[in-house]
């Protein structure tokens, strides 16, 4: 269980995380979405105890997390993580020795599946393969919380599909909290249970994927009709082209009429509407 | 314990460069004149180089492999203890077996300089081991602090102490007395006790610094 209470993180004058309160109780695969610089990595690093927060508290399984926590029970892997320049198989073996609950069989199986050459040294791998090794080490650790920071960076399309399968298999084998930060939204949708959207250091959405599917819509029509239909609804964005207006809502859809076009909002469009700030203006 | 010993194994294995440089220097070092430096002295080089690798090379990589800070801390302590034992053993062996070969010349071994051999070779070896442990822990803590302001402050304080204490006679006496106790000490019990006590204190400081360490 992860519990964040009024978490604020400042770097000098810049506030990167703003008063975040969030509770993740159930095991599941969670997707952390946000624009570049939204605070995703800072949030994940703080939960992993890699850095301290300025204010607030972070708890994982009831244990307070700071850099002083000598054993956090959190496994975090970032892009370009540095590893010993050893053959991949040996690296996985060492990881199994330093992690008490490490699933070496899972790691070996994944190494075979991703056609990682066990004899090849880490520094000789491509960026995608390096990221894959880091991800396998992180998932095989079997810690109660696994944080993957942009794990699909450098992956080709086939590797990404394999990765999502691996994520599901790993979760099914050992249900725990897995948070994946990514920019490739639509692809991961089939894998995740819940979505966390962070924008400008604040969590602006935390709910199930199902809620997006059932409550996120785009309503198009003449301006007057759309305004009337959406007047008491939670409007998250609006586009205007000539006399036609499209409003994006996160609410129960209005009744279908002949003058309105109501369509479900794809996940990527929902994300864009939640965090998109056109022309620099904040909605 | 398995995780800690795995970390010890990895720390020692990734310290290859230190081992190689030390072996090369020990084998290739030559002295001229009536007094020659014992080649065993150069094994101390390993004690100087090792903390650099443990702090700057191994820490991040071990944490990325999933090691905990706690296991890293104990792994380092055990590794330093083991290396201090090995260095001391090899230098003592060289002092006993190789130094006597230069019978015509005076062979200077730090174990003699520090007056440890006055207590017999086994006790001298132990004194050397505890002193090296202290030295490695001191370097480890000092290097760990470098990314923080208090590391720079400690550097400055050390430089100031050396500069000022060596110029003023009474303070010079204090500095000399300190080194008499921790290094040039023929009282084996006092020497080992002080070294162990300071090592314990430095370990605690090292733990505090580790707790502040970010990634």
Characterization of the model:
The complex is a heterodimer of chains A (283) and B (215). With 283 residues, chain A is α/β, with parallel strands linked by helices. Chain A has two domains: 2-200, Rossmann fold, CATH 3.40.50; 215-280, 2-Layer Sandwich (Alpha-Beta Plaits). In chain A, 31% of the residues lie in helices and 31% in strands. Chain A has nine helices and 14 strands. In chain A, the strands form three sheets. In chain A, strands 6-7-8-3-9-10 form a six-stranded mixed beta sheet, sandwiched between helices. In chain A, strands 2-1-4-5 form a four-stranded antiparallel beta sheet, covered by helices on one side. Chain A is globular. Chain B is mainly α and 215 residues long. Chain B has one domain. Helices cover 74% and strands 3% of the residues of chain B. Chain B contains nine helices and two strands. Chain B has a two-stranded parallel sheet. Chain B is globular and about 55 Å long. The two termini of chain B are 25 Å apart. The A-B interface holds A 45, 50-52, 67-72, 75, 77, 81-84, 91, 94-95, 97-100, 102, 134, 137-138, 141, 143 and B 2-3, 6-7, 9-10, 14, 60-62, 64-71, 73, 211-215.
């Amino acid at each position: 269980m992860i519990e964040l209470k009024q978490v604020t993180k400042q770097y000098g004058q810049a506030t990167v995380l703003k008063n975040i309160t969030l509770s993740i109780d159930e095991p599941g695969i969670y997707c952390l979405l946000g624009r570049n610089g939204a605070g995703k990595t800072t949030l994940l690093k703080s939960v992993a105890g890699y850095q301290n927060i300025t204010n607030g508290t972070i708890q994982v399984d009831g244990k307070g997390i700071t850099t002083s926590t000598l054993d956090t029970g959190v496994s975090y892997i970032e892009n370009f993580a540095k590893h010993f320049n050893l053959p991949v198989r040996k690296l996985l073996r060492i990881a199994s020795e330093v992690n008490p609950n490490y699933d070496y069989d899972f790691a070996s199986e994944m190494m075979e599946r991703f056609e990682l050459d066990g004899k090849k040294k880490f520094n000789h791998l491509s960026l995608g393969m390096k990221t894959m090794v880091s991800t396998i080490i992180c998932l095989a650790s079997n810690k109660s919380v696994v944080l993957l920071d942009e794990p699909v960076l450098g992956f080709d399309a086939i590797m990404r599909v394999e990765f999502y399968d691996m994520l599901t298999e790993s979760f099914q084998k050992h249900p725990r909290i897995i948070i994946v930060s990514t920019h490739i939204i639509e692809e991961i949708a089939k894998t995740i249970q819940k979505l966390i959207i962070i924008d400008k250091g604040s969590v602006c959405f935390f709910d199930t994927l199902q809620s997006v599917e059932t409550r996120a819509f785009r309503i198009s029509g003449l301006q007057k009709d759309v305004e009337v239909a959406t007047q008491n609804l939670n409007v998250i964005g609006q586009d205007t082209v000539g006399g036609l207006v499209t409003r994006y809502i996160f609410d129960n859809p209005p009744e279908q009429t002949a003058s309105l076009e109501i369509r479900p909002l794809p996940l990527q469009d929902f994300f864009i509407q939640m965090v998109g700030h056109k022309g620099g203006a904040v909605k | 314990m398995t995780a800690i010993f795995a970390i010890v194994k990895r720390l020692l294995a990734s310290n290859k460069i230190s081992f190689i440089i030390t072996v090369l220097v020990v084998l290739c070092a030559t002295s001229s004149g009536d007094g020659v430096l014992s080649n065993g002295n150069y094994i101390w080089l390993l004690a100087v180089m090792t903390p650099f690798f443990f702090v700057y090379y191994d820490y991040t990589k071990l944490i990325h492999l999933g090691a905990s800070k706690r296991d890293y801390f104990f792994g380092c302590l055990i590794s330093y203890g083991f290396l201090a034992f090995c260095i001391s053993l090899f230098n003592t062996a060289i002092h006993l077996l190789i130094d006597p070969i230069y019978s015509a010349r005076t062979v200077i071994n730090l174990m003699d300089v520090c007056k440890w051999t006055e207590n017999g070779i086994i006790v001298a070896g132990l004194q050397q081991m505890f002193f090296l442990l202290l030295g490695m822990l001191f370097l480890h803590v000092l290097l760990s602090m470098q990314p923080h302001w208090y590391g720079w402050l400690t550097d400055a304080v050390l430089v100031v102490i050396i500069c000022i204490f060596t110029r003023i006679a009474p303070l010079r006496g204090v500095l000399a007395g300190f080194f008499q106790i921790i290094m040039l000490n023929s009282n084996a019990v006092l020497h080992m006790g002080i070294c162990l006590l300071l090592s314990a204190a430095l370990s605690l400081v090292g733990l505090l610094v580790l707790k502040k360490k970010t990634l």
